[in-house]
């Protein structure tokens, strides 16, 4: 099923979606947010920069205005996976690019807080279908 109106079987209530797995994924987000905040503070970067860029990854939600949830999910997920800021951080460390490292840490912090709050990576069925379970209206 690929329509947003239909609820795929994988989103029905299951033990995995309501067990300690979800709690562990949220705690993982807390850990990532905490570590990135401490590293950001130790880096001595501007907290104004942190405040200005913290919501920037959420601009990827604009991918959903295409009307194609599959593309919306792909764009959103590209900006809400730890892989992308990790690569940026690695490149920043290799090139000694302090601003790029600060951006990567802000990005990781944003993703960590999202995970802590239950906002996960999106499935093609629609914005409310995440790897952490359903969100929003119609939540099981």
Backbone structural class: mainly alpha
Shape: globular
SS summary, helix count: 5
Strand order across the biggest sheet?
A: 1-2-3
* Main beta-sheet strand count, sense and barrel state: 3 strands, antiparallel
What does this entry look like structurally?
This protein is mostly helical and 140 residues long. The chain contains five helices and three strands. The chain has helices at 20-43, 47-53, 69-79, 83-95, 98-116, and strands at residues 122-123, 126-130, 133-134. A three-stranded antiparallel sheet has the order 1-2-3, with helices on one face. The two termini are 18 Å apart. 24% of the residues are buried. The mean pLDDT is 85.
Quick rundown:
This protein has 140 residues and is mostly helical.
């Amino acid at each position: 099923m690929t329509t947003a109106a239909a609820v795929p079987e994988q989103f029905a209530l299951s033990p995995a979606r309501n067990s300690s797995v979800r709690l562990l994924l949220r705690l993982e987000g807390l850990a990532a947010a905490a570590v990135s905040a401490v590293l950001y503070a130790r880096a001595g970067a501007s907290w104004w920069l942190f405040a200005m860029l913290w919501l920037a990854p959420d601009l990827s939600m604009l991918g959903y205005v295409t009307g194609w949830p599959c593309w919306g999910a792909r764009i959103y997920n590209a900006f809400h996976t730890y892989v992308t800021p990790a690569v940026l951080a690695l490149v920043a460390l290799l090139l000694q690019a302090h601003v790029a490292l600060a951006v990567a840490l802000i990005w990781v912090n944003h993703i960590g807080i999202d995970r802590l709050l239950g906002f996960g990576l999106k499935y093609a069925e629609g914005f409310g279908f995440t790897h952490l379970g359903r969100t929003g209206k119609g939540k099981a």
